[in-house]
## 1
Amino acid sequence: MRIESLSKRERLFRAIKGEKVDRPPCICPGGMMNMIVEDIMDITGVKWPEAHVDAEMMAKLTMGVCENGGFENFGVPFCMTVEAESMGATVGLGTKINEPRVIEYPISSVTEWRNLKELSVEEGRTKVVLDAIKILKNQNLDVPIIANLVGPVSTASSLMEPVDYYKELRRKPKEAHEFMEFVTENLICFAKAEIQAGADILAISDPSGTGEILGPKLFSEFAVPYLNKIVNSVKEDIKGGTIIHICGRLKSVYGILNSLDSDVISFDSIVNVREVAMNVDNKAIMGNVSTLALERSSKDIIKNLSRVCIKNGVDILSPACGIGPRTKLENIQSMVEVAKESIYME
């Protein structure tokens, strides 16, 4: 017997909590896992880089994805630079096909963290994101709103030269932890403001904080505790739950992933879904259709990849990373079509 059909919001809430659903949701959170493509910019008449600094435009773009048969959620912002910019980094906003990026670091060592600005939620692009969430919330649509946060290691390595940052984790651990505490407290401030603005779900992406880059020891010391601090600071307030995305190969940290306190683990296309399912037993599994394939392959290939993901055990179908702006909308629609055909039975 077919399970009763659910709304987009209820379906994702249930999938995140490991409860029964009628079919897998198909989402793309935003943030590092950007969902905006040129086709949507052309359909809505709203383009980058202007949408990065205008709340109405930001909201209209993410609504345009869902309204045109794309991912079954709203998600803002569309880059990984908002937090670092608020703390003092200089950011170039990019172009229609290039996301914003940090072009000047405010500090050169973990010892200089006291020179950073405290993140403000009342000005700049942090306020734009919060205002966009409020606009989405006021639409009163039954679509889940995902707020995005750059993870602690990735934010820290956007505030100083990454190679120097990684070296100083080993050479200056005391000061590095002080730096990480400062970064994390500011990220918590932004996360709480996003939830207060109306976000249903918090997605944290930490592509620089991988086991592949850090190794198991530093991953346990400098990634997990600070990720968990953020997650646990919002758990009582967030309705839909929390997602953590980790890039790179996970084999070296499989034993550590269960210590993450998020409801969902999301991961790269190079990671085997079945291996994650065997090694992670306390989280919903999200992923992991190749973004390279999404940009360059046909609809039929995307459908096959999506079916394999579901067959191998993902609870939530999604791209493995941020999709390229040149990705065709029809390829995104193909993922959603596969999710809709994957009806679960009682």
Note: Residues 8-341 form a domain with the TIM Barrel fold (CATH 3.20.20.210).
## 2
Amino acid sequence: MKHLLSASDLTRDDALLILDTAAELATVTDRSVKKLPTLRGRTVVNLFFEDSTRTRISFEVAAKRLSADVINFAAKGSSVSKGESLKDTALTLEAMGADAVVIRHSASGAPHRLAHSDWIQGAVINAGDGTHEHPTQALLDAFTLRQHLRGGAGDLAGLRVAIVGDVLHSRVARSNVTLLRTLGAEVTLVAPPTLMPYGVDGWPCSTSFDIDDVLPSVDAVMMLRVQAERMQAAYFPSAHEYSRRYGIDAARMAVLPEHAIVLHPGPMNRGMEISADVADSPRAVMVEQVANGVSVRMSVLYLLLGGMPDEA
């Protein structure tokens, strides 16, 4: 595997290799010197055409812990804001000797265009493209589920996960449905009819419009942010009505099985899709997701730039 563009690129064995490697690399954070020499001399470029805090910093920390050189390239204030094309930007990065490009772009498919062109020879990692996919987020979510509900080993066979909220605009939901299914989990998407994507019947999951029907029987619930910035129309009557019908609060938390956990890819709209008391609850694992994101992205960079075993 040369690139990571989509969760569908990963077989069960690929996904387990990434998760197992991430578990080993997570021990680096417990050391006094949090560095490995693995990617010394390699250059990783974070090419972000959309604003991001968690993902960009997570990739930067991951690359630096592996001793790679990191270049952060933000579209704002760069030649891109002056009209430079993706192709010309990529050719510039290639001339600078980029070994890997981590790209976030508002256009769905931009990472695929970059990977399947002759503009750049290094690895391309999709850090979120439009409303399409966000594969490393799905991997860190799977890692978090495995740590809490599977003892940190093996796949997620039989695990029941509900993904709730703005599925229509969520690249996180798309990647998670694919990856969690690959790992054996059963996924249910829960959303208002207006926020359920067209063609969802063909996805490897079930759907529901009623969160209260689903919560009593799941092992984990993943709340999605309402992406108001992508909405050009009224998808629900009001924020209060959305919260009442689809938000998770203490009352809904109480009907979850005792072992169940709550995830959120962030940033959270507290008081809308998730109440403050749930967000701050011990069963909410958002801070762990951020920490696990560094380990998972270290694993992806290590395997892509160090060579997957079948390419050794």
Note: The chain has two domains: 7-134+290-311, 136-285.
## 3
Amino acid sequence: MQVRADQLATQLARSGLKSVYTLHGDEPLLAQEAADTLRAAARAAGFGDRQVFTVSGAHFDWSGVLGAAQSMGLFTDRQLIEIRIPSGKPGKDGSAALQAYCEQISPDVLTLVHLPRLDREQLKSAWFAALDRTGVTVRLDPVERHALPGWIAQRLAAQGQRVAAGEAGQQTLAYFADRVEGNLLAAHQELQKLALLYPAGELSFEQIESAVLDVARFDIGQLVSAVLAGQPGRALRMLDGLKAEGESPVPVHWMLANDVLALQRARGALAAGLPLPMALREARVWGDKERVFQALLPGVDDAALAALVVAASDCDGVLKGLRRPDWPEDPWEALRRLALGLLDLVATATARRGAARRPMTLPAGG
């Protein structure tokens, strides 16, 4: 049984505690809150003892875990066992042990398994299927930028606060989200600060502006997504943020240039007569990016794309310390120019696609 983090309290209220809860994801705040919720429910249900096992390395001794599940608690007959697997890979012995554990688990044992974000292969593994089949799996998905204002509003409501209704409130939430994007734990701390500073009720933009620190954290994947989504303000702010955080410009260039070259390969495949899905496979475009490219490719200007390929090569030279005519010497300024070029390509492709969709209007009386 799989649920999202925000569904966990409802599941507990509706169905009570299950034998096994598996938490997987890389969002520290959601992992902490989900674990705290389950520990509180376990204490209320009489699971007085608690044992914690951290699986470190391929030579971890699983016999202690299996034995603990069958032993009596020190102070009570019911116990909580937490199994932490930081790598997300229990290994061959661990896989067999987890499956055996699920088969012989006692009703007087509640188990909480902590895992990082898992890939597709791990999610299909026999050990993960056994955990999921035995209890409840809680996905700790990060809160994406588009959902962050709503998440903030919900958290404000939970502490008796809110922003103004209508467009003004939406702008306030968007400002708040920009300040904390990519750093949910810090966002939680900023929300707690607002609860301490101001009474329950409506918060003004000025109150939030004066109280909320800029604690946003970005990764390169978010930057590229913002560029391909045609969001220049957000993309350039992320670029500045990555520079301020000490990120190397090399992987930033690699990801931007990789998408430029992927667009070129896909356009070439389309020109060769391949249908769009096959052209994307030829360009090695997969997953979420496939949908983005499907929307962009029909409107891409080939001459502008060719110039952008050259720009990506020039930017690479700047990063390697080479002088390029008409290019800034600073690597981050060169990346800014490359990102702006890709943003311009995206804007043009989007506009051309929109124009192609508009119906033709016949002159009156024709």
Note: The CA atoms of residues 187 and 289 lie 28 Å apart.
